[in-house]
Amino acid sequence: MTKIRTRYAPSPTGKMHVGNLRSALYEFLIAKHAGGDFMLRIEDTDQERFVEGATEIIYRTLAKTGLKHDEGPDKDGGFGPYVQSERMKTGIYMKYAKELIDKGEAYYCFCDKERLASLKTEIVEGKEIMIYDKHCLSLSKEEVEEKLASGAPFVIRQNNPTEGTTTFHDELYGDITVNNSELDDMILIKSDGYPTYNFANVVDDHTMHITHVVRGNEYLSSSPKYTRLYEAFGWEVPVYVHLPLITDENHKKLSKRSGHSSFEDLLEQGFLTEAVVNYIALLGWSPEDNREIFTLDELIKEFDYHRISKSPAVFDIVKLKWMNGEYLKAMDFDAFYEMAEPYLAEALGEGFDLKKIAAMVKTRIEVFPDIAGQVDFFRTLPEYDAELYTHKKMKTDAASSLTVLTEVLPILEAQEDYSNDALYQALLSYIGQKGCKNGYIMWPVRTAVSGKQMTPAGATEIMEILGKDESVRRIKKGIEKLKGE
Ligand code: GLU
Q1: For residues 59 and 74, what is the distance between their CA atoms, to the nearest angstrom?
Q2: Pocket of ligand 1 contains residue 215 by CB under 6 Å
Q3: How far apart are CA 122 and CA 128, in angstroms?
Q4: What pLDDT, in 10s, does the model give residues 298-329?
Q5: Residue 160: pLDDT above 80?
Q6: pLDDT at site 259
Q7: Which active-site residues does the annotation give?
């Protein structure tokens, strides 16, 4: 059996879009699942869209996500060059375009802008497409040669038949047949000498021995034209896997506007790389059971591309947050602390035992930026409403809380050891004397020392962090509030 070879073929045009990362991931998984090779090819022939620094983003993202390529511009595997602009310099695209011309499958076109602008247009998938009228196909060999010799600008177009049909196969969509009359004579070589994506992808995938082409389904409608190129050359068509669209929560194509359309956005928002990769794997693919948490190695084992769905995948940030929270819970504490520390330091400043607070929040946050909202009360007691003291289940209200705080205050003032255990024992013995339930005491104490309904820890753990002076001050403040002062 031939070794599976997949390629990730990004264009260096900016940030790493979630859809691009998904293509890279699926290509990586398909290759690795079958013990094949995963290759990186940089598609930089669209000079107008080139963005400085974007190539570095590609390398950085692949390294960070663990999608290790076996071949690429930085790792020669014998199929290079791996950057299209460098491939162009070898003359490969022109050579194959000329081969098509010789076969009558392509032709030179010298039409100028004005003439092209006067041609009929059609709306295809919401875009206005010009249908070229094959004007230059009727030029004689001599006319063509004369124009070329005079240095007239030209493009090379594919010569598609106007009759008959073309069929291609996609692993997910099955056989797709189109009328050849719908296939425009697309440009293969542009007037600047660069190949179009439409041409380069075919020449490159073939010459680089790619067996499986995985890409977004926006390329589905052009695939019959690619198939015609393969057939014209007499080359074997690779296995096509066109991936479903990724939409935002409003079922619109996931775009910058969502605020989380790129890998960089997600990292900035405090998501873990592993969680993002895991989540992206599920944007269109699902395993046989309902399992959701996978390491990259587990994905390699489980990934069967036949289980990719055709339905659009909704990027659900709420779900990603949940998943990220699961990764945080499972994370080794030291690794967690290293990442959480800057967020804790920013929220709390100096003077706190950040490690202890990190342990409190580890299982309670979904993303690191949640930390501030969980711990800010340690630094400053928030303004809170006396209503907070009333809790039905704990059977507390303003009057009972006032009594409890007033009785607890001298105990806390007398207490020297402010460790959680010692404080807990002190309060337990008071609870024992009173003969009430724990919550009846702990609720008002926790409310007074935190000013919040929900905290990442109990009353005595909070007081251990706050220390005696601040705990006593807050209890006194609670008493004043309950007295209505
Ligand atoms: N350079 C193309 C893109 O970034 C690649 C499409 C493909 O994988 O063939 O969209």
Answers
A1: 10
A2: yes
A3: 6
A4: 999 999 999 999 999 999 999 999 999 999 99
A5: yes
A6: 85
A7: 256
Give nearest CA residue, ligand 1 atom 9: 215
240: which strand partners? 170, 213
Quote the Cα angle for 306-179-223, to 5°. Answer: 40
User: Are residues 365 and 275 in contact, defined by beta-carbon separation less than 8 angstroms?
Assistant: no
Question: Distance, CA 210 to ligand 1 centroid (Å)?
Answer: 14
The CA 119 to ligand 1 mean position distance, Å, reads 29
**Residue 135, pLDDT above cutoff 80:** yes
- For residue 212 and ligand 1, the question of a CB distance below 6 A is answered with no
- Express as a percent the part of the chain with pLDDT over 90: 91
185 Cβ closer than 6 Å to some ligand 1 atom? no
How far is ligand 1, taken at its centre, from the CA of residue 336, in Å?
A: 36
Q: Three-class SS of residue 430?
A: helix
Residue-wise DSSP of 202-256: HHHHHHTT--EEEEEGGGGGGHHHHHHHHHHHTPPPPEEEEEPPEE-TTSSBP-G
Place of tokens 């996609």: 170
Tokens of 147: 């124009």
Contacts of 26 by beta carbon, 8 Å cutoff, 6+ apart: 214, 241, 243, 284, 285, 303, 305, 308
**196 pocket-lining for ligand 1 (C-beta < 6 Å):** no
Helix (H) or strand (E) segment spanning residue 201:
helix 197-207
